[in-house]
Amino acid sequence: MESLFREVRRLIAAKDFETLAQLELTTPASFNWVREVFENIHVKETPDATALLWTDGRQTQRYSFRDISMLSNQLLNFLRNKGILQHDIMLTQMALQHSNWLAIVAAIKGGFRMIPAATILGVQDIVYRFGKLMPKVVIADAANAPKIDEAEKLSGQQVVVKLIAEGTRPGWYSLEDVARESIEAEAAPTLADDPLFLFFTSGTTGMPKVVTHTQLSYPFGHLTTASWIGLRQDDIHYNISQPGWAKFAWSSVFAPWSIGAAIFAYHQEGRFNARDTLAMIEQHGITTFCAPPTVLRMLILEDLKAYRFRFRECVAAGEPLNPEVIEIWKEGTGMLIRDGFGQTESTCMVANLPGKPVKFGSMGKPTFLYDVVIADENGNILPDGEEGNICVRTGNGRPSGIFKTYFDDAEKAKEVFRNGLYYTGDKAYRDEDGYIWFVGRDDDVIKSSDYRVGPFEVESVLLEHDAVQESAVVGSPHAVKGYEVKAFIVLNTGYEADEALARDLFAFAKENLAPYKMPRLLEFVTELPKTISGKIRRVELRAQEAEAKAKGIQPEQEYGYVR
Hints:
563 residues
């Protein structure tokens, strides 16, 4: 695999995607990305090259590949000396600090299973994770450590090792304890199929599913992400994403470090500031850039021509790009933003590759590890121009970035792996030139400011309020966020739909949901549209909401959340 990574790096730099697609690939029995790629290539050959460039706008810290290797080895030795074994579970919940990267490298090298948790998740979200997969190790920063302590109390379970990533806290180990360990460590004998990442991802008909990625699927699979971005070894790559989300692993870890590029991280305290972000991009000479459309919509509100950029490639993922955003970005920076498509369950599957013709509005063509087809529910491949399911052919023995299974949900796994295909849950069509055109999501997951919100979770909380008889949650079109969460509420007898009750429901939601999940709009209705079998037709509510927003109509009994 070491030689394969070297060859892929060479082909990406040469933009020789035809040869890349023809590489003969076989799945190895064993694989450890840290040992075979991070250490055997980068630490050995370019130990002093910048691996991570971190700043908070006031101070900047540089970490070489050797630095990351030594610090992560100390963390691995510390955990092993505390009795943590291969296959044990580690949960992390930290803001954008260097400890995130150390934890990931240590987890891979040690063969641990890892649950990344976003800082925006609340105590109940952590309790849910503890109930599904109780970690033996938790690494958290000062702001999130109290959530872990509270989740332990509520769940009745105890974490074996709690490590705080900054300062000290009673009952927690500190980085000073880790710093006493040896800087040398042996990699665990990991199999390629060993579970590595356990991503909790929102769905439409239940609580979050647990996507299981292996030692091979994400570290190796993100070579497609590197090819989409067009990364080179001398790049400084900036991906705007927070730890805990799959996209952080995509472009803030594996894509750049598989190539040997430097990762740039800007830790902004408080709300996202477009002007400060652009200043950091200019100051640190960012050459490759990835951001979700939500962020790009905020960046283009600034005077882009006032900055001197050094961009070589710019990409965006998370939702389809608005043509206006593409045009304004190109006018202001001189760079074309290229779209790409993938999921938590995969790496970059479809993309507009660097140097290749771009059809505006298309997601591009399949990347080199994926045999992507448009199929119907029975597995029949559909002719060009006909809308169907975005699927990937499986069972051909070639490694890819597709996840292994859903933990503890065999039925859901059967639903997406059938007919010799993996069904992504998204709709598209293929044109006569092989370009794939996104049509829409096949489920009801709401994409708001690049967060995924499962309606069922929000509806379940709202139903706990005494006044609520039924609830249905959909995305309401929003100029900046893409969509914001809206709840349609049917009240129990004896309750009156008014502003006071709306405020009470907003407060209840705020208390029981993570901030990004809580509704920003509430509309009281007398009934919800349903199928014959009684299932709520969210598609009808979405269409109704889109039409109202397009016409500038505000329903009489709609209320907005006020901070």
